[in-house]
């Protein structure tokens, strides 16, 4: 079969067939009676072999190496090609994400496009100082909310994260759904950053999001959420904060949150009810919490604790009473 017919039947151009021939990848091995070179069935099979390898992403040089190597292992080739494809897809996904972020920012001219690109590049810099400078220049309308929240959640440097949190909280878009979604992430550090931002957003939506993590396995996440909800007057978290005082888990912060809780009678009642079965250490912490909460009911209980059999509790109660008089 001569080259023209092979080209028509195979879909490989005559020019490419000649190129394969010059490289020694697939050459016509026969001759017609008139002396023309012809492709045999084996030669045509070699052409399709080359085409198959090219379709997998190999260069012609790599195709030649694969065909010439007697120890060639197809499984190794496929694994290597899969890794290359994954890397290529990751680059394309990164480019697509960047383009969408720029588009979502709604730039109206090239100057704004370049400004958004510069901000995104700055926030992705390996240098913390560069990221912080970029974070400090971000305004609520410079970047789409998803890009801004993503940058904040992934930031490891505390100073940069603080600047980004400031920008997120003041964003013109509703960022609460994005932060609420982050609260379900398996990474506790990411959940902590999301909680810190939600604490700074005073809205019903942020309160609802914070309620979803009052029992979070990470103590920092649940502590910040319950404390903020108490400050916002959510009495449902008072028992959780009292339990924290009893258990000695961030009890000082819990006491401060109880002091800011809306229902002081409920707070004192919960603390007093725990005294009867409490050991000395717990009674001391309860006394400290009562001193923080204040008010006549708390004061009356502290007067009773002045005569507590545990000297540490009695001294703590006396000190707190005297401090309230000053």
TrEMBL record:
HTH merR-type domain span: 1-69
GO MF, any single term: DNA binding
UniProt cross-references to Pfam families, sorted A to Z: HEAT_2, MerR_1
Alphabetical UniProt keywords: DNA-binding
Domain of life: Bacteria
PANTHER family named among the record's database cross-references: HTH MERR-TYPE DOMAIN-CONTAINING PROTEIN (PTHR30204:SF93), REDOX-CYCLING DRUG-SENSING TRANSCRIPTIONAL ACTIVATOR SOXR (PTHR30204)
Protein name stated in the entry: Putative MerR family transcriptional regulator
Organism of derivation: Gordonia malaquae NBRC 108250
Lineage: Bacteria, Bacillati, Actinomycetota, Actinomycetes, Mycobacteriales
